[in-house]
Amino acid sequence: MNKIEIQNVSYTYSKGTPFQMVALNDVSVAFEKGKITGLIGHTGSGKSTLVHMLNGLYRPTSGRILLDGQDIWEKPKEISKIRYRVGLVMQYPEYQLFDDTVRLDIGFGPRNQGLSEQEVEERVKEAAEFVGIDDEMLEKSPFELSGGQKRRVAIAGIIAMRPEVLVLDEPAAGLDPRGRREILGGLVRYVERNDATVILVSHSMEDMALYCDNVVVMSHSQVYRSGTVREIFSDADVLADIGLDVPAVAKIASALRHEGIELEGELYTVEGVKRAIIEYIGRSGK
Amino acid sequence: MEDIIIKTVGLGFTYDDGEGETNPFDGKREIPALSDVNLEIRAGEYVAVLGHNGSGKSTFAKLLNMILTPTVGKIYIDGIDITDEGFTEDDVFAVRRKVGMVFQNPDNQLVATVVEEDVAFGPENLGLEREEIRRRVDEALAVAGMTEYSSHAPHKLSGGQKQRVAIAGIIAMKPRVIIFDESTAMLDPRGRQEVLDIMERLNKEEGITVLNITHYMDEAARADRVVVINDGRVELDGAPKEVFREVERLHEMGLEAPQGKELLHALECEGIAIDSEALHEEECIAALVKYLKRI
Question: B281, A178: Cβ pair inside 8 Å?
Fold first, then answer.
């Protein structure tokens, strides 16, 4: 089932001025409910514009955005309600922390939603758990934390509003491998527990392969390809045509297949390629 | 004797408590960020420094450039003891001229409104002749591949281009060492590649010693030498092939090997030993093809 549908959406910056620039050109794409969809493309491909549109920060120049089948701009005055339902974690969200303690910062959103103190407390606890923040850290000032910890607090602040759709722009940029795993793994649990929909923007094809169900590829203000992770990453050449990489291990699998070694399965994660090779050996060796 | 450009002896650093700074990386106080680091880096080496967030690797870079002062131990740059108590402000500037640093955020490093003015900022402050400044700026822009953007406004450039302007500003100071402190972390793949290419060109063609502090394993694998810092100590130090052979230890430290190496390691754990030397993608492919075609 589709949670969000983008229908023939175009967006032009500074329309009617000499600086006019088309950022999205007649884009139609859907995001499935309960799935994590990766959004990839070069800088300038239009993916950031699309992301800012999903929770109503930009209004399409033309076309419609449907959330559960309903046009989010049907009542423009009520667009702020959409922002509780579609949470957006921008790039480097740690610069947006402001409150005295981590607990207050995470609770800011739900408190604004008008929830009772008890509910706010529950939301804070739940959100902290998803991103791996312990009780001790909740009492600290956000400014005492490391960059990676601040990032978690900022993401928890959005999760605490329990959005049906969570959109994240490079949530793991600049983090080490363990930090990436913890934050992205938390998203998977969030989706599973709340039947939420996640849209993840990242340059890391390895992360896409590990955590996403579907992938949408943007290029030159349009959707270039969309499909399951398997469909998108199974052909290294298709992405290479627009200058994008596939995960390193997918490139290796593709090179092996060009050599006539017939691997089958999920050929885009280390685990998947390993299994395919073991299976190949099992088939070939007597 | 080979020319040692950087030498540290028993180097340690503890972030101060109370009114002093807190460790910006992990927020802890009074915990040593670095302890007992003994390293020798030869002139012309291309060294990657790896470590998880808060491992102490950025503290190390800031000590070399004298942004921080060691709590204990000695640092010698080009044979000069930069931890000497009689060190004057002029001496500090002399060190910074030898050791340039490129930081993570491209937007925080540019000062002028025109690219070539930004690059000229350093040399101007050295009090050089006009012609010499012109010559250095042109040269630096050429090396960084930014000549055609010399009269552009920096804020209109891409992240990778901004980093290249920042690098040109450092090159114009004619340093012997350039430290890249996670300089590719905020860039897209194309920008990252641009910066890596320049890094390698500076090392191979200009003979500049390069320290690349990073958490991209594939970047580290391209260096001549990899130093892994964990909990403030040097855990591994050697050629990429030696360091990335220690896949299990890297995992314990919250790091990984490049994916090809991870694949070979995963197969080895299943009893399929293919080639423990292969590291780069092409090597892994060649080793796998050779092994799989034989069966």
Answer: no
